[in-house]
Every structure is written in C-alpha cells, then in structure tokens.
Specification:
heterodimer; A: about 170 residues; alpha+beta; five-stranded antiparallel beta sheet; 4 helices; 5 strands; B: five-stranded antiparallel beta sheet; globular; Trafficking protein particle complex subunit (chain B)
Chain lengths: ~170, ~160
Amino acid sequence: MVLYSFYIFDRHTECIYSRRWTPTPTPTRPSSSSSKAARPPSTASTVSSSPTAAAAARAKAVDDEKLIFGLVFSLRNMVHKLGGTDDTFLSCRTAEYKLHYYETPTRMKFVMLTDTKLNNLRPYLHQIWANLYVEYVVKNPLAPVEHPGGIGVANELFERALELFVSTALPA
Amino acid sequence: MVVFALFVISKSGGLIYNREFHAGMQKLGSNDLLMLAGSFHGMHAITKQLCPNPPVPPSPSSTPAANLAPSPFTHRPTGIEVLETSQFRMQCFQTITGIKFLLFTEPQQPNIDPIIKKIYELYADFVMKNPFYTVEMPIRCEKFDRGLDGFIKLRG
C-alpha cells in the first residue's frame, strides 16, 4: 500500500495544506506538454542548479494542487448532476492511482491520492478531519478562523499527529 | 445486475451516443449531457497529468515477446477508469483511438470489464462497419441499438 499525497482545500477553493510522500520528480524526466514552462533550458537537464530545480518542483506542486481542486470540483458537480443532489462523490481511480475524497458539511475538501489497491478511504479522511484537524487546528487558539495561504494548519502537533495516524491506521 | 446508462464520447470530446437502460439517474436534457461529456473529456485529460508515479515501460529484455517489433504505442498514463459515488459507479473505457465508453451501473457491480469489451465489440461490428456512418458523428444505427438492448437485457 502506497500513499502519494494528501491535500486539504478550504471553502474558498484554496489549498490550505498539502503533503507528499513521493519523491519530487526529477526535471530530467520527459514531462508532458503542460510543464513546458517548468522545464529547464535544453542543456540543463544534468547540470541544472538546485534553486531552479526546486522552484520548478514547487511550481509543479502548486499546479498539481490547482488541478486536483479543479478535478474534484468538477467531478463533484458532475456527480450531483447525474445522481441527484443527495449523491456524494467517493473516489475515482485510474490505472496508476486512486483519488479518495471527503467533504465536510462546511465544504472543506479532504483529498488523498494512493495506489489503486486500497478500498475507499473516506472513513479515514473523516477521522483526519474529526480527530486531527478539529483537535489541532480548529481548537488551536493561535490559529486564525480562516487559513489564507495555509496559515495555522501546518502546525507541529497536526503534522506529527497526521504522520502518526498515517503510519498506524494505514501501515505501508 | 443494473446498468443505468451508456455514453459514448468521441475523441474530440463530443457526446456521440447516449442511452438509458434503467431508471435511477437524473433525467437530463441533451444540452446538459453534451456539457457533461465535454467536461468529462477535460477531467479525463487532467487525471492523466496528475499521475504521481510515471509508469515505467516494461524493459524489453524481461518480456517474453522481446523479439517482436517494439510497440508503436508509447506507454502513457491512463485517465479516469472508475468513478465511485454513493448511488452509482461509472466505468470508463478508452479505446486506443481515443473513443470513450462510459458505463453507469450500480455501486457494487462486479465484472464490468467484459461488459464494456462486449459493447466495444458491438460498436465495432454495427457502427464502424456501417457504410453510412461517418466518424465523430452521432451514432444512429438501429442494429447497434438492438444489439445493446439484447446484450444488456440478457445480462440483466
């Protein structure tokens, strides 16, 4: 069982927390058409200096966040249209990965990308929200009510508890 | 077994066939269906890009067919294959030419792959071999309709 990444989106469509367990892709990999801008200049594949590579990886990560939000948003809308408003989007799978989705009543979206062999992780995402997010972020007196740019979400307690939860509830 | 509906989306994202077999999903107008098909086409492309681990092509020495000519089709990530919701399950099968077959079934429906392969077969037999059918155009082939009806009823 492999976990690839985990994202929390707030109700303003912003990614307030993201966590990746995969190594960042190397810029030498022939990337798909969209990341042309992120690709270093032609000869730089082996000698690319680390700051540009890091910046490219960061840009790719931000792009991924936006793409994932757009994807779950449109899939959710499609599901509502086809199945009625009381239908909920649970997960979607490709040959390479599976995307698990949980939405709280306050429209926060929890998304996790894993390998394809897992069953639905919705109960686990609910646990993360109820036992970790509410405990360590919402009840934190120093965290703001909203989290523009992810302020206050990635605090030490939450990070540590998430790491512990993932390693115990979803052992590799 | 309950199969709710079948959509066929052309390689450019247009809805070329839609058919409802069983009530259970929302009734939608043809404009809504066209819009859904188009947006699904886009989402399918996005899921391809999001692939967190690019698949490694099988090394030529390890495969038994090493002495065959290399495949002309590069190994690339697939888009959405299964979408699960609380009320239905959607299986998407994309042919190598880019046509997508979307089959909507009950949430816990096993063995959809052979059904979708059979539908592809019916498509190949009754649509592609129909001399009056132009590709990328809406499918209006009576034999395809009848073949689908017979097949789905037989399975149900």
